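Feature request disguised as a bug report, sorry. It would help if multi-protein outputs had a clear separator. Right now it looks like this:
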Amino acid sequence: MPATSRRRKKPARRAPRALAGTVYITRQVHFNSAHRLHNPAKSQRWNTEKYGLCTNPHWHGHNYVLEVTLCGRPDPETGYVMDLGELKRILHRAVVDPCDHRNLNEEVPFLRGINPSTENLVIAFWNEIAPLITAGRLHRVRLFETPRNYAEYIGPDSPAS
């Protein structure tokens, strides 16, 4: 009796299931910058009382850590809210490249005329990052000035704004 070959049918290729739900993704980047907290409309005494060593006319620096969070639903084809590699490229273009190893008061065009407190920086960074986001929604910009001090901004539409 001749042997019969049995071929198994390959199952039809199907896209993986997409799960419904809102997800928050965060990318962290680092940069180093100098700055001075100073209000030129006030006296040096006032600035020293308000800012202490941070108003040193010879500047001081920080090793900043920037965290940016997006929210959205994962794309059914990729499973991503946004490719984190693309988010990294956006953060470098918008913030790291212009600010790294720079004097924030004098060398960063989008910060000209702004007192570069951590609070002001998170708002300025949001304004630079938001137009570049192509997937998901910008949810939060958090900036660590030191491991124990940070500010975060949830955007202009947050209840606190």
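(second protein starts here, but nothing in the output says so)
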Amino acid sequence: MEENDFVSIWLEETGNPAIEKLAQLNLDVAHKTTAILTANGPTENDLASILDINPDEIKRWLMGRHVFSIKTINEINTALTEISMNTKKPATVQPMH
């Protein structure tokens, strides 16, 4: 882009609200996932096993260093629902918006 491009200058000065919102949504998913795991007892390794994903990837997810696709969010939601149904504690899974 040109140095004097108005849009480039504006984005540099103000940031991109869509990217900021996406980053916040990713952090929200990570925090909700951590809260559900903590409340229901399973570990990050249990979640990794259910999702058939490397546990290190789950750790990155839960630290907010991952951009979630809709597919991944749905897979996490399904796994957390399964975890909640298989624990003795009441289910605490809330839909992720």
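Even a blank line would do. Unrelated, but nice: The first helix runs from residue 6 to 14.
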